[in-house]
Write a structure and sequence with these properties.
- One of its GO terms (molecular function) is dTMP kinase activity.
- Phosphorylation of dTMP to form dTDP in both de novo and salvage pathways of dTTP synthesis.
- Keywords: ATP-binding, Kinase, Nucleotide biosynthesis, Nucleotide-binding, Transferase.
- This is Thymidylate kinase.
- The protein is built from eight helices and five strands, in the order βαβααβααβααβα.
- The protein is an alpha/beta fold and 202 residues long.
- It has a five-stranded parallel beta sheet with strand order 2-3-1-4-5, sandwiched between helices.
- α2 runs antiparallel to α3 and α3 packs parallel to α5.
- The chain has one domain: Rossmann fold, CATH 3.40.50.300.
- The protein binds adenosine-5'-triphosphate and ligand LXEULUCI.
- Adenosine-5'-triphosphate (ATP) binds next to α1, α6 and α8.
- The ligand Cc1cn([C@H]2C[C@H](O)[C@@H](COP(=O)(O)O)O2)c(=O)[nH]c1=O binds next to α4.
């Protein structure tokens, strides 16, 4: 039996991390074994790469390659073995984030991104991608109220406008796996929608 792979996406401050605990509890309540993880990160090596990626300035191709290096390790150590055991894997970001940030935000060509995707996970795609979508101003306000900003979170509004546009372009390109969640609503309203979406996946 193969488990299911759910990814959580959105610009920084959209609210995706807030809902991972809810989804974990919801699925556990339906008898599933759930592993929640994140990118970059999710393994000891990936967490070291995360620290570098979130705090060091680097060439945009170095950034893309390190994101995929972290991802390769995450797939090998966590995602593939957990799915093979029939467990459900929730990842706070996956390859759609590389398209949104490194291609949409920074301008790396989609062809290079597609080549990395084809190399690192030719046969793996999420069963469901929850895209938490909010206007930039809402995301900025939420972030400002919550913590010290990292390298990405300090980017200008135009950068996030391009990331958001690329996320929405990918949601339109892959309607079978994306659900776009209006994240301007209350946490409770969003969780009611998530429960409906998850019921359909079970
Ligand atoms: N629907 C919501 N309404 C009001 N506040 C929210 C909502 N969702 C999340 N928040 C708040 O916004 C802040 C950012 O949320 P969260 O950390 O989940 O965002 P994120 O998208 O995971 O950000 P990042 O990608 O930077 O980690 C938190 O303080 C959280 O409590
Ligand atoms: C996977 C991935 C992530 N990023 C960026 C997006 C965020 O700004 C950070 C991760 O921080 P979060 O608060 O845990 O969401 O990394 C990226 O640029 N490219 C990627 O592939």
């Amino acid at each position: 039996m193969q488990g299911k792979f759910i990814t959580f996406e959105g610009i920084d401050g959209a609210g995706k991390s807030t809902h991972i605990g809810f989804v974990t509890d919801f699925l556990a309540g339906r008898g599933k074994t759930v592993v929640a993880s994140r990118e970059p990160g999710g393994t000891p090596l990936g967490e070291k790469l995360r620290d570098v990626l979130l705090h060091e300035t680097m060439h945009l191709e170095t950034e893309a390659l390190l994101m995929f290096a972290s991802r390769r390790e995450h797939i090998a150590q966590v995602i593939a073995p957990q799915l093979a055991m029939g467990h459900w894997v929730l990842s706070d970001r996956f390859t759609d984030a590389s398209f949104a940030y490194q291609s949409g935000g920074r301008g790396l060509s989609r062809e290079k991104m597609e080549a990395l995707e084809a190399w690192v996970h030719p046969a793996l795609q999420p069963d469901l991608t929850l895209l938490f979508d909010v206007p930039l101003e809402v995301a900025r306000e939420r972030l400002a109220a919550s913590r010290t900003l990292d390298k990405f979170e300090r980017e200008q509004a135009e950068f996030f406008a391009r990331c958001r546009a690329e996320y929405l372009r990918r949601a339109a390109q892959f309607p079978g796996r994306f659900v776009v969640v209006d994240s301007t609503r209350s946490i409770e309203a969003i969780q009611r929608e998530l429960a409906d979406v998850l019921e359909r996946l079970l």
